[in-house]
Amino acid sequence: MSRKIGVYVCHCGSNIAGKVDCGGVAEFAGGLKDVVVSRDYQFMCSDPGQEMIIKDIRQYGLDRVVVASCSPRLHEKTFQQACARAGLNPYLMQHCCIREHCSWTTADPIEATAKARHIVEAAVERVADHQKLYSREVEVLPDVMVVGAGIAGIQASLDIAKSGHKVHLVEKSPSIGGHMAQFDKTFPTLDCAACISTPKMVAVSQEPNINLMTWSEVEEVTGFVGNYTVTVKHKPRYVNADVCTGCGACLEKCPTKAISEFNEGLGYRKAIYRNSPQAVPNTPVIDGTICRKITKDKCGVCQKICPTGAIDYDMKETREVFHVGSIVLATGYDTMDPTPMREYGFGRYDEVYTALQFERLNNAVGPTGGKIVMKNGQKPESVAIIHCVGSRDKNYHEYCSRTCCMYALKYDHLIKDKVGHDTQVYNFYIDMRCFGKGYEEFYRRVQEEGVTFIRGRPAEIVREDGKLVVVGEDTLLGVNVRLPVDMVVLCTAMEPRADMTEVARVFGVAQGQDGFLLEEHPKLGPVSTATDGVFLAGACQGPKDIPDAVSHASGGAAQALALAAKGTVSISPTTSWINPDICVGCRVCVGLCAYSAIEFDERRNVAVINEAMCKGCGSCAGYCPSGAARIKHFNETQIFNEIDGLLGMVPGWLPPEQGEGHPVEIPVERPVEEARHE
Amino acid sequence: MSSEFEPTILAFVCNWCTFTAADLAGTSRMIQQPNLRMVRMMCTGMVDPKYIVKSLLSGADGVLVSGCHPGDCHYINGNYKARRRVKLLNEILPQFGIEKGRVKLTWVGASEGNEFAATVNNFINEIRELGPMEARSMAVI
């Protein structure tokens, strides 16, 4: 079937024209089969450039368009929209790249021109077989699910709830607040962490639009953008939250103790416990693994003592299903356990603390009531703070954890402030990275308080004469140092949650090289993911301090709200399609599909694609032994045509001045010259 | 081997990683040998082995398949599927006289523009060493 193809070659100023003979390429394209108009222009993406295409589509009745310019990742959409404005289905356009992959990477102009010709020829070959495709609009459910109720999850939930949309907030621990609830002060303003986070925690519990579910986990997610079905597992709390008043009598009488996770192992909690007196919700939870009543059917003290009869040892796991339009992931981070770094002696020496343990020491409701004392009850006379423990280290995590420099400075100040200004504080750092608002000023302030900064990562920490000795090198002075101190704080890396792989699998989100959840684009899509309708908030995407996590969370909330407020979402039509006349029902594709988008129709004995769930990866089409599965816009005829175009004349091709070149047929209508002189 | 032999290389690259890396190599003006022609796929998982065979039979001296690093796939695990297919293809092709080295699978991440340029240049050199594909002249379709 004969086509009417228009070819548009862009000069991109001198970016392309500097190497590629654009006029020559346009002239060459004019001679290709079915090309009725071929033009070159300085800036195709500009308004006059797009107008030229639109005018030609109308004037010459073009049914296919090829634009040869920059990378399709940059301007494919622009030209698709231009075609759509002229009434041409946008998928009847092929955008090929003669800039990034040709003019900018090829040294020789003749070779660059030859390459550009092949690229254009392939696009012309390919576009001839393009088919009209139509995006589908699907409805978006108005509710949003937020997973994780740390500061990022809290912020995202409050933002969404404020707009009037319902939020289902799932938190796996017994109360909300995340790591921020463990802190005492925040840098650089030295705000009390509780004073800024607890009001937000209360706001979450009181907001009628937020359905807060603590001690719960997301078990399964099915569906697609706008229509997710989420199964949430509620772990048995053994305390009836509707009846419990939070009086705390049960906590005092419980005889069973366990190491407190919230206090980072620095204290004990009971078998029935809540994280802190400020916990939201303040309903306690019974640790079913150690409670004597549950494990051995003895004790039962809490039930006897509870004035409201809230204790129920027979509580079972329950499941609840939610239908939401989008999901915001705010699953947060873990801090690295420095035990494997034997040289720092964590776990061997009592006076070596991790940063999060040190936060708990500082916290007024922590194990020491906010006093900085060592495990022997003494105040330290000298403290060494070691930066980049597990960060910027090829053996552990290569990335910078972003927060350590600043919290180390905060510790410097707090030690001077709480223990006394005569306390010696030494910072072993690699680089100081004080990048935020007011951070550098805080660094200066701490320096002026008399804190010592030593550049160099210490080699080891040993114990000599009852003191810890930090052995290292001051790389600025070029001398070895052996520094006796009473206490060491390790600024441990922020790392992905231990169960991140499981989270990534459940929500269908990819993990980056470091294990954090992968955003759509590091610069221009930091909150969205490759899975439409699933957004990221906070440190699950990478290390973040509180201001960054909060802004990121608001960004995620805005994305989720944009979807919910519009009410519909258009789904890309470049999905797979299984021809029922060819499908033999072998079901290989069903197992291959990473998105469970292929169902098997038992009655007809064929596989069927659910277009709304299909992302268009083409795994099924790449395998299907009978050729029934095809991926739209990348089907085999189109790819074969492209291969033909790219290879068709490669052997023995010479530029026209040197050889015969491609036979150029002069079409009836060929306004190439005229266009070039516009 | 004739020194005038200039190989023709076809590359099937994934839109999210290697194609982006190719863009980055371009933006960073990393000069590459001009022998490579690229076909953009959405995922290496959609590279049907018949595209590779077709390319080899139609005049390509080497075929490069390149996608996201293992674990980084935009479509969860498409690159693993490509890895299996290329591995199997490399088992079969030598039986038809096509050397193993003519089909290569690599991982080039979106931020690795320099890696892309190096991969392309190395592969072109490897194929130049191998020489023109002689099996093609014997193939009857």
TrEMBL record, chain A:
Source domain of life: Bacteria
Domain 4Fe-4S ferredoxin-type: 235-265, 282-316, 574-603, 605-634
PROSITE patterns: 4FE4S_FER_1 (PS00198), 4FE4S_FER_2 (PS51379)
Pfam families per the UniProt record, alphabetical: FAD_oxidored, Fer4, Fer4_7
Keywords: 4Fe-4S, FAD, Flavoprotein, Iron, Iron-sulfur, Metal-binding, Oxidoreductase
UniProt xrefs under InterPro entries: 4Fe4S_Fe-S-bd (IPR017896), 4Fe4S_Fe_S_CS (IPR017900), FAD/NAD-bd_sf (IPR036188), HdrA-like (IPR039650)
Cofactor(s) of this protein: FAD
GO terms assigned for molecular function: 4 iron, 4 sulfur cluster binding; metal ion binding; oxidoreductase activity
PANTHER family from the UniProt entry: COB--COM HETERODISULFIDE REDUCTASE IRON-SULFUR SUBUNIT A, FERREDOXIN:COB-COM HETERODISULFIDE REDUCTASE SUBUNIT A
The protein, known as: Electron transport complex subunit RsxB
UniProt family annotation: Belongs to the HdrA family.
Gene3D superfamilies: 3.30.70.20, NAD(P)-binding Rossmann-like Domain (3.40.50.720)
Organism: Pseudodesulfovibrio hydrargyri
TrEMBL record, chain B:
Keywords: Iron, Iron-sulfur, Metal-binding, Oxidoreductase
GO molecular function: iron-sulfur cluster binding; metal ion binding; oxidoreductase activity
Pfam family, one: FlpD
Domain F420-non-reducing hydrogenase iron-sulfur subunit D: 9-131
Source taxon at top rank: Bacteria
Official protein name in the record: Methyl-viologen-reducing hydrogenase, delta subunit
Organism for this UniProt entry: Pseudodesulfovibrio hydrargyri
Source lineage: Bacteria, Pseudomonadati, Thermodesulfobacteriota, Desulfovibrionia, Desulfovibrionales
